[in-house]
């Protein structure tokens, strides 16, 4: 007898690539959860990783950066906050809808 | 008498004067004495000439104070004329002389007064009396009625009307008393009906005879009685009434005689319709219907109805009683209708009937047990009768209690029937449909009953009991079963609809199909299937609406939806979407957000795979292009149900392909990590069996096990332990997988020794004789089925979630109120959490304790029994 696989329907769940027990430095919610304003975790409430390797819920850090007193610094290390990866930033912000754009470095 | 005559005479003189002034018209009047008009005209003229007031002119008969109205304008009739034969008017000699202006008419009158009126009366009456005797004796009428009429007329004109009338009265009285009454009295010893018959006989005779009397005494009737608001007819009826009917011995028998006739009819024997009709007519004619007959009849009717109701209600069952009551009411009213009895009789009789049959028997009619029996039998018609009967008295709504009780009992029995959990929803739907039909047709959509129906549905649907079926959580089982039923519908489509529920929907559909063109038949079927599924979904949602704790439903629905989406088992995407839309309108967007996310994930995954495949195709330099077709469903973990990670060793051929995709995904979405859920994966295998090639649709675990047998030797024996090692599946999972492959209906593997249960000592070989009529064989049903373990987990998670939700609700309430009493807090909490499922008071208390431990609240020391929010 010979068995060959013709089709494989796999199932995978994605999550943010962060340590399990870590929380957002601003809202203290887990990264897998949402910022304090959103209701449902997922694409709608992405994470943002700074050059200083501190990451936050995008909504959290944006509202922080908008404040005058923040002076566009990371709230954790006081270095000027810059998103680590512009491309990743875009993808994250736009979510999976940008999946059709073949901009992936091969 | 004499002044009257005098005045009359003076009247005459005026006319006389006039006559001399205008001889011409008067002469014509004199020549033709029958021409009344000219006479009236002649009497008008003198009044003008005499300058009489118009009032006088029109009232001259009353002014003259006479008791007789001279309808024949009598001024020139002379009272002296004694002969009745020729008639006075013709005989008046003065008229003959009217043409001669110089005639002395006054002379002519004087001798007329010489005749004594008394003698005249006696003389005339003698004749009349004789005639009356003949009439009363029913003898042959051999005399001239006209002559008699004239005689009476003359008497009246002589002012002897009163005497005549008195004599007639006395005569009739004597006749009735002596003859008619005796006849009736003879029957006294016999039955009441006979008395009535005799009375009717006498009445008929009397009426017949009175015809003659009326003819003869017509003048008296018109001129003497009419102005007194009386009439000969009234007198005759009155005499009969007072002498015969109102005789104290006769009256009760006569009336009872009529009532007896009704009683006979009620007993179901033949009614003497003629007699009864005549009797009613007689009562009406005698004006005794309302006063004497009606009360007695109603009294007897009341007795009858009362006894009837007592007897029937104790002897018969509810349905028969209702039927009999309706029949009784109908027959009673038909009788009233037929003999056109009075409206008042009808009204009173209806009141009587309703009072005795309905109002007083209300408790009997709304009897819990028997009503329940009718509902049990689904006796739509009987229920309709019952309701209609009660509704005569606006008591239909009183069925509510019994109805609610029955629904609750029946519903609770269905819900807590642990043996038939699987058919619970079907039973509930059947019950609902049955009740809806009853409500619509039998109860005429009574608002109150409809309300009661829904209320009691709500009550029993939300009864919870900690049973083994819900793993000792107090989750509502209906919620779960409804979710499963919906899953079945969405997976199976119209075919999955149970026969007993779809039958009704099919009938109109079939009718439609027959009506439609044959060419469109195919489309119709398609359309009908969709409609039918939608119909079913609507009905299920009707049930769902009753469920308070939507959390259980949501949990199971989500699980089932996930399975349908991942395994591609939805019968129709449209149905899925319409169900989602329904849930959205039913429970709000919050309820369906996760479900929508699931649909979105599947959509995105599809796009992702398309782009991935395009990418692979453009890079066909790869030495090993995908050996098989890969589809990955990428889920957002939070929206989907949680799945346990089951460790499994994936064969390298698959894992390389998977990791290739994983790399691709990671590079495309930085910051994301994929976790494989192999337990949810399924695949198609091409298998070459000795007895033919097959395509197998199996779960990933099954595939992995089957791949182990992928050798050229068909007799390879692989022991259980080896399989366990090479797949590293946990025993429970492995057992299930092997069982599905070797012990189910389709067996690609053979177990040694044979048996249903998998033991670690078993050895497996390929089933060389595996075959199936179909080319594609699905063996992954195990994967689709929910294990008891999963069911338990879902239940427990729902119960757990409810605790969290309750805590969240408590905190929200406390945050708003700061300080609150215990009872109030519990009440508020129940109110807030109702839509998702409420904990019992004990549960709420436990959660309050837990929050106090976590220092969200503290006990209010001052208020006593209250709580404070700790910020």
What this model shows, in words?
The complex is a heterodimer of chains A (106) and B (871). Chain A has 106 residues and is of the alpha+beta class. Chain A has a domain at 22-94: 2-Layer Sandwich (Herpes Virus-1), CATH 3.30.40. Chain A is 17% helix and 20% strand. Chain A is built from two helices and three strands. Chain A has helices at 58-66, 86-94, and strands at residues 2-16, 47-49, 55-57. Chain A has a two-stranded antiparallel sheet with strand order 2-3. Chain A is elongated, with a radius of gyration of 17 Å. Chain A starts with a strand and ends in a 12-residue tail after the last helix. Chain B is mostly helical. In chain B, helix 23 packs parallel to helix 25 (447-461) and helix 29 runs parallel beside helix 31. The radius of gyration of chain B is 53 Å and the shape is elongated. The chains are: A alpha+beta (106), B mainly alpha (871). Chains A and B meet through strand 1 and helix 2 of A and helix 31, strand 1, helix 32, strand 2 and strand 3 of B. Chain B: This is Cullin-domain-containing protein. Chain B: Belongs to the cullin family. Chain B: InterPro entries: Cullin, Cullin-like_AB, Cullin_homology, Cullin_homology_sf, Cullin_N, Cullin_neddylation_domain, Cullin_repeat-like_dom_sf, WH-like_DNA-bd_sf.
